[in-house]
Amino acid sequence: MEASVIKSDDKSSTLLLSDFKLSFVNALRRVIINSVDTLAIEDVTIFKNTSSMYDEILASRLGLVPLKTIPELVKSKKEILFKLKETGPKAVHASDFIPSDKDIVPVYPDMLLLNLKEGESIDLEAKAVFGRGSDHIKFSPAHVSYHFYPVIDIKKGGVKGAAKIASLCPVNILEGSGDNLSVKKGMTQDCILCKACEDYAGQENIKISSDPEKVIFSLENWGQLSTKEIFEQAIESIEEELKEIGKKV
Ligand code: SF4
Predict the structure, then answer these.
(1) Average pLDDT score over the chain
(2) Would the pLDDT of 5 be above 80?
(3) What per-residue string of b and e applies to 176-187 under the rule 16 or more CB within 10 Å gives b?
(4) Pocket-testing residue among 208, 210, 211, ligand 1, by greatest number of atoms within 8 A of Cβ
(5) pLDDT at 165
(6) Measured between alpha carbons, how far is 155 from 189 in angstroms, rounded to an integer?
(7) What is the pLDDT of residues 26-49, one digit of tens each?
(8) I want to staple 123 with a disulfide (CB 3.0 to 4.6 A). Which of 18, 37, 48, 68 is the partner?
(9) Domain 38-138 is found in CATH 3.40.50.720
(10) How much is the pTM?
């Protein structure tokens, strides 16, 4: 399989894959979602909660707070304790969590956990453990998807209502005026194959299809791990699973 980076930053990565087996591309997607270790809050001990949020809802909400995960700690199966003790009036944010390890902190400190009114208070201890998306989706490190590379065929010689057609594109990759409709430079891969342009203009003017030889693979991480760390762990997981299969065959 060949892969090239279309775009990549701290939060997301988009790759162009060719010479692939579709089953492997799907395996990679599933392994990233299900088989990468991250930290998340698993147990919550509530000593006091006089807020309007039920204990169960509060605990469930805490479980969904993404926590910075250090891959080197995965093998140690380390558990991290967090304390939260606040009195209203106060908007309680993820940054109010006090961790037992200063390096394991919520990814989004401004994430609102709950609002305490005058006289309300909470006092709790939460334990974060390592887990995988196959245990619970809160451990999953990213949203991952893929689709075939789009092909946008625009009739040569012009398309009536080009500006109107361009305005229908939900990802704004078309431009047009008069009868001149075109795809903005370097943006073909951003087409989401919705066919809004084709439906409006008719297939004789615009034909949307896809190239089965090329796949666009997109990953948007939730912040526990960097994109590079996610790919490294996913490849390790695939290798481990293949070794297990090898032993059993
Ligand atoms: S198929 Fe949808 S996303 Fe693609 S160019 Fe047409 S309107 Fe835009």
Answers:
(1) 93
(2) yes
(3) beeeebebeeee
(4) 208
(5) 95
(6) 19
(7) 999 999 999 999 999 999 999 999
(8) 48
(9) no
(10) 0.84
Given a cut of 90, whether residue 84 has pLDDT beyond it is yes
Question: Is residue 94 a contact partner of residue 108, using CB atoms and an 8 Å limit?
Answer: yes
What's the 235 CA to ligand 1 centre distance in angstroms?
Answer: 33
Cβ atoms of residues 96 and 83 within 8 Å: no
pLDDT the model gives residue 78: 79
Q: Choose which residue among 149, 171, 207 to substitute to test ligand 1 binding: the one with the highest number of ligand atoms within 8 A of its C-beta.
A: 171
Minimum CA distance residue for ligand 1 atom 5: 191
* Ligand 1 proximal residues by C-beta, below 6 Å: 152, 168-171, 173-174, 191-197, 208
Give the domain ranges of the chain. 2-35+143-219, 38-138
Name the residue with tokens 């615009």: 206
| Mean pLDDT value of segment 97-113 | 93
**Which ligand 1 atom lies nearest to the CA of residue 190?**
3
Check if the beta carbon of residue 95 is closer than 8 Å to that of residue 67.
no
